[in-house]
Specification:
The chain is α/β, with parallel strands linked by helices. It contains nine helices and 13 strands.
Length: about 300
């Protein structure tokens, strides 16, 4: 097994700081060293590896492709070493620091944000930055700790935990149904105002999902001239004002259904749901704040196996 002496590990830390800041001088200033000492340390690594980690000019330094790969691996290794040290010294007993989370606007507003006061009460030393957007961010490249997304990601860099299967239905206001009639089959949607959400990632309408009386799953895009861009909440607002039919989650529509402000239609074609997953970069050692949030969300929202169709 290959071992590294303290000087080599120190050089790797200097390399990572220079790569992070894009400057030998900035790295030296941040670490209280001279630029020459940083340059020498990185040169020792390059000599040992037999590759160039940086392209250098008189004004700039830039990572080579090999240097970028080495940086990603070294950064993860240093994070794992730091996590291991925190674990054995007891510093993980009080999670702290900033937690950056990305989630879609609907799930964020209706599911995540209502839970955060309880999380903050349990972990008062964790600061939070929440991005509510239907843009699918690259959480590894953009520096997010976690994200909540529909489905299960195929990216091998990510770990996914199933939070819940959220059932969907088609809804409208009573006055709209009095004016336009109640659809009793999918073909009847062609004569209705169907409010569609256009996915920002594809520019296409998000399919409405159904299950026919024979148990067959159907993905259906009803003909419509009414489309909402960027934020799916617009369909709910428009539909709740009598603007047409819209498909949404029962956890969103339930209060309005109970008050009689919305009516569910096409229930014979119900039974479908969308899976929501909590995802984060695949690291051997999770930070205390990430682990605390994962455990909290799984305990708060994850359905029992018997309820997860």
């Amino acid at each position: 097994m290959r071992t590294f002496d303290p000087i080599q590990l120190g050089s790797i830390e200097l390399f990572c700081k220079a790569a992070e800041l894009g400057s030998f001088s900035a790295a030296a200033e941040a670490l209280g060293l001279t630029p020459a000492s940083v340059s020498r340390s990185i040169k020792r690594i390059e000599t040992r590896l037999g590759i160039r980690l940086f392209s250098r000019t008189t004004r700039h330094v830039r990572l080579t492709s090999e240097g970028a790969l080495y940086w990603q691996e070294c950064k993860q290794a240093l994070e794992q070493i730091a996590a291991a040290e925190r674990a054995i010294t007891g510093q993980q007993k009080r999670p702290s620091g900033t937690l950056r989370i990305s989630t879609g606007s609907l799930y964020g507003n209706y599911r995540l944000l209502p839970q955060l006061q309880a999380f903050r009460a349990a972990y008062p030393h964790i600061d939070m930055e929440i991005s509510l957007s239907n843009r699918v961010v690259d959480i590894v490249e953009e520096g997010y700790d976690l994200a909540i997304r529909i489905g299960k990601p195929q990216d091998s860099r990510l770990v996914a935990h199933r939070l819940e299967d959220a059932s969907v239905g088609v809804f409208a206001t009573p006055d709209y149904l009095v004016r336009r009639g109640i659809p009793d089959r999918l073909e009847a949607l062609a004569t209705h105002d169907c409010l569609q959400f256009v996915l920002p990632t594809t520019g296409r309408a998000m399919p409405w999902i159904f299950r026919d009386p024979d148990g067959k799953d159907i993905d259906y895009i009803p003909p419509s001239r009414l489309r909402l861009l960027d934020d799916a909440y617009g369909c709910i607002s428009w539909g709740s004002a009598g603007g047409g039919l819209f498909q949404s989650y029962h956890f969103i529509a339930a209060p309005a259904l109970a008050r009689g402000e919305l009516v569910e239609v096409l229930a014979a074609y119900g039974g479908r749901s969308r899976q929501f997953s909590l995802i984060y970069p695949q690291n051997r050692h999770l930070s205390a704040r990430v682990r605390a949030f994962v455990d909290f969300m799984l305990g708060s929202l994850k359905q029992p196996a018997s309820q997860q169709g």
